[in-house]
Amino acid sequence: MSNSEKFKVFISRSDMPESGVDILKKQCDLKVWDGPMPIPKADFLKSVQGVNGIYCCITDKIDKELLDAAGPELKVVATISVGYDHIDVKECKKRGIKIGYTPGVLTDATAELTLALLLCTSRRLPEATHEARTGGWVSWAPTWMTGPGLADATVGIVGFGRIGQAVAKRVKSFNTSQLLYFNRSERPEAKEIGASKVSFDELLSKSDFVICCAALAPETKEMFNRNAFKKMKNSAVFINTSRGGIVDQNALIEALQNGTIRAAGLDVTTPEPLPLDSPLFKLKNCVILPHIGSAAIQTRSNMSEMTANNILAGLNGTKLPAELD
Ligand SMILES: O=C(O)[C@H](O)CO
């Protein structure tokens, strides 16, 4: 393509980290959505007409209707995320549209956040700071604000890919007694980490902490349902930093209200943002974060650069640096 007819790329947010946008600016004709976020569907459909590439994020549904609206010139869709459950992968493949995502660069940030959320939930930090600020801190007290520690605990990780393994390595440094994992396939890396593969049921019944790092797919949808929570210890702490759809949220609310499990820490919910009147916000034993797993400054820049490079490769017809196969 000559300079006068650059590739057309649509970017669905005006606040995508600059480092990636700068890469694209030099070589593409960029159209950036700067209206309300996330981009309303009707605007999305209009904005993508005739583009060659789409730079999107997890709130943008890339479905058949959107691909139809974009038309036959669309070569690549790249998401600034490792998760791709918002993209109709089959439909893209059928049309020969390449999909880029951002595995690897956010592993450390997400693992860090998972640990932060776990400690926050088990040691009741939001409750404790609230008490300190509002006069509940009357005196040091032997049993006040106590919660389970990680030392000598059994930790179960569901989904043992990059992020699950990074979480396991970090958790181990807290002197846990046992690391269990549940994954579709056996992971060779588990041996060195010191984690044992068990069935989902065994993980649920033995773990003091259950951490969900699995990707959302038809097989994992609502795998944490009423039955699963019943199999967990009453003292268990549940952490989810992957996708809200993996949990039957009503079952979780019930489990937290009834003491079926002790507490939950969630970086992801259904829907997002979680409505302010959700019962989850009323529960002291639930810590909720607004999906900030990968929100480390440098990580987001790296993700943006990877997204841009995925787009450029897709436009030029070469293998993407991180292509979904
Ligand atoms: O899938 C992802 O990358 C996260 O959920 C958002 O960074």
Tell me about this structure:
There is one protein chain. 35% of the residues lie in helices and 15% in strands. The chain contains twelve helices and twelve strands. The strands form two sheets. Strands 8-7-6-9-10-11-12 form a seven-stranded parallel β-sheet, with helices on both faces. It has a five-stranded parallel β-sheet with strand order 2-1-3-4-5. It is elongated, with a radius of gyration of 22 Å. The two termini are 26 Å apart. (2R)-2,3-dihydroxypropanoic acid is lined by residues 58, 81-83, 106, 293-294. Residues 115-293 form the D-isomer specific 2-hydroxyacid dehydrogenase NAD-binding domain.
Q: What can be said about this structure in brief?
A:
With 325 residues, this protein is an alpha/beta fold.
Task: Give a quick set of tags describing it.
alpha/beta, 12 helices, 12 strands, 5-stranded parallel beta sheet, 325 residues, binds (2R)-2,3-dihydroxypropanoic acid
Present the secondary structure layout:
Elements: E1 7-11, H1 18-27, E2 28-32, H2 41-47, E3 53-56, H3 64-70, E4 76-79, H4 89-94, E5 98-100, H5 107-122, H6 125-134, E6 154-158, H7 162-172, E7 178-182, H8 189-193, E8 195-197, H9 200-206, E9 209-212, H10 226-231, E10 237-240, H11 249-258, E11 263-266, E12 286-288, H12 297-316
Parallel strand pairs: 1-2, 1-3, 3-4, 4-5, 6-7, 6-9, 7-8, 9-10, 10-11, 11-12
Helix pairs in contact: 1-12, 2-3, 5-7
